[in-house]
Amino acid sequence: MRRWSGLILLVALAACDRSGPSTEPTAAGGPPDLPGLLRTHGVELTPRQWGRIERMAEVPELPADPTNRVADDLAAARFGHQLFFDPRLSAGGDVSCASCHDPAHDFTDGLRVAEGAGLNLRNTPTVLNAGHHRWLTWDGRSDSLWAQALEPLENEVEMAGDRCSVAALVHADPAYHRAYESIFGPLPDLADPGEAPARPVREGTPDSLHERWEALPPDTRRAVDEVFVNVGKSMGAYQRRLGSADAPFDRFVASVASGRYEPVPGFGARELRGLALFTGEAGCWECHAGPMITTGEFHNIGVPPVAGGMPTDSGRHAGTSIVKRDPFNAAGEWSDHPEGGRARMVRTLVETPDNWGRFRTPSLREVSRTAPYMHEGRFETLEDVVRFYSTLEGAVQLDHHQESVLEPLHLDDEEVAQLVAFLESLDGQPADPAFASAPGAVPGD
Ligand code: HEC
Ligand code: HEC
């Protein structure tokens, strides 16, 4: 691969290191300074690349979610923590959110595609840092964490539950009952909804549960929806606490920015060269940019379907129409800010066939811990992913209108290893360890 022919890093450092301390090599025997390190390893970075690198390392405050009035309420997060790990919310009593979003696998399941009450078509993404995403899931069919949480609860292949049973559980479990009322006020009178599991049709076909839902008095349906939504908002509050930070890459950038570069464990010459490729010639930065290492945009990069042939998953195409029609979206009656920015975003989303086959560019934070990769779990290792970008072997082109953003990179083995090493340096630490594993007993119980 052609080497980046720009200005060398000394210029970049002059641009970033405004505080002035010397970045010249230290006396023999001291820690190597950064320019020295780069010279030794023949790495060149332009000021523009360095700008990209700094933007990747600056993890901002979580964006506010005014559609959820308890988004940042600690009691709601604790209640959501209990719910997230509770298999009683599923139809069979055997699947919780954490069955698939398992802390032992960095909040994924380690499987190619998810297995819950049935077999899912897609790979389970981590929920770490999910509070930073503008659209949730591979196709962006939810516009908030709380609305997203309501989907797996009733999805036939995930938890296969129903909102009446969820509301009945909150009523019947004394600890949940107390927690709920302390956050949201009195539980509405539900007139035994648990006697008859019921839910409206979402994306599936009408069934007996749907018929029962239609037969319920409107007031009961409203009361059930209210509890269901508040369960979602509590799980949203919980997941907002699941951040990760302080990866070797972040520490490396902080060390450089301090003007007193010290070598960072887990970020050596290989990672540095991988970073130079990522933010330069390999073009990864065009889609994997900013602190979550994604622009959040949807693209079709031609990943070959596991079943062979042409893709059948329309991705963002269906995702756009689902989120616009979701009764729980940011513009809907259950939103706590139906006139805000998020609501405007979902109202003005354009449905276009161009979206067919596009998927959200994933965040690459924690990526080495969340194999397998891509929306169908197509690749088992990061090396497989990078080799795909290198050769584009088997890539599928839908038709001649499809965006053609990728060209084969023709990386050599060492460059593949460098990119993989860099990706591995994006694994961080849980921002709030108290929430990063299964909860203890319900507080106050
Ligand atoms: C059977 C496994 C399974 C269960 C159970 C499950 N999920 Fe998921 N989760 C998935 C899969 C698969 C996706 C991707 C869905 C898609 O793109 O179609 C996902 C996506 C998500 C996302 C979006 C993450 C992102 O990066 O956009 C969040 C948040 C999430 N789930 C939270 C939950 C919550 C909360 C629960 C429990 C109420 C739950 N999940 C239950 C498998 C599961
Ligand atoms: C045109 C935008 C674009 C570019 C450029 C790009 N990616 Fe991606 N990347 C994506 C999208 C979209 C996906 C998900 C595709 C899918 O599931 O079908 C993805 C998926 C990935 C994944 C899998 C993550 C996961 O959790 O499954 C990795 C790793 C990755 N990219 C690394 C890279 C690297 C390294 C480069 C540069 C060599 C790169 N990407 C260039 C858009 C891009």
Relevant terms:
16 helices, Cytochrome Bc1 Complex, Chain D, domain 2, about 450 residues, mainly alpha, disordered N terminus, 4 strands
Distance between the termini: 62 Å
| Assigned CATH superfamily | Cytochrome c-like domain
Query: What gross morphology would you assign?
Result: globular
Strand order of the largest sheet: 1-4
User: Helices and strands: which structural class?
Assistant: mainly alpha
Q: Assign the CATH class.
A: Mainly Alpha
User: What is the domain tally?
Assistant: 1
Bound compounds = heme C
Biggest beta-sheet profile = 2 strands, antiparallel
Rg from C-alpha positions? Answer: 24 Å
Quickly give the CATH architecture. Orthogonal Bundle
| Count of extended strands | 4
**Low-pLDDT residue spans:** 1-32
In CATH terms, what is the fold-level topology? Answer: Cytochrome Bc1 Complex, Chain D, domain 2
Residues in helices, as a percent range: 25-40%
Percent of residues in beta strands: under 5%
Distinct helical segment count? 16
Q: SSE order in H/E notation?
A: HHHHHHHHHHEHHEHHEHHE
Average pLDDT level: 89
Short overview:
With 445 residues, the protein is an all-alpha fold. It has one domain (62-243, 269-436): Cytochrome Bc1 Complex, Chain D, domain 2.
Give a description of the structure.
The protein has 445 residues and is mainly α. The chain has one domain: Cytochrome Bc1 Complex, Chain D, domain 2 (Orthogonal Bundle), CATH 1.10.760. 37% of the residues lie in helices and 2% in strands. It has 16 helices and 4 strands. The chain has helices at residues 9-16, 34-41, 47-57, 74-84, 97-100, 145-154, 163-172, 174-184, 208-215, 218-240, 248-257, 269-279, 316-325, 341-347, 382-391, 413-424, and strands at 244-245, 298-299, 359-360, 429-430. The strands form 2 sheets. It has a two-stranded antiparallel ribbon with strand order 1-4. The chain has a two-stranded antiparallel ribbon with strand order 2-3. Helix 1 (9-16) packs across helix 3. The radius of gyration is 24 Å and the shape is globular. The termini are far apart. Mean pLDDT is 89; it is low at 1-32. It binds heme C (2 copies).
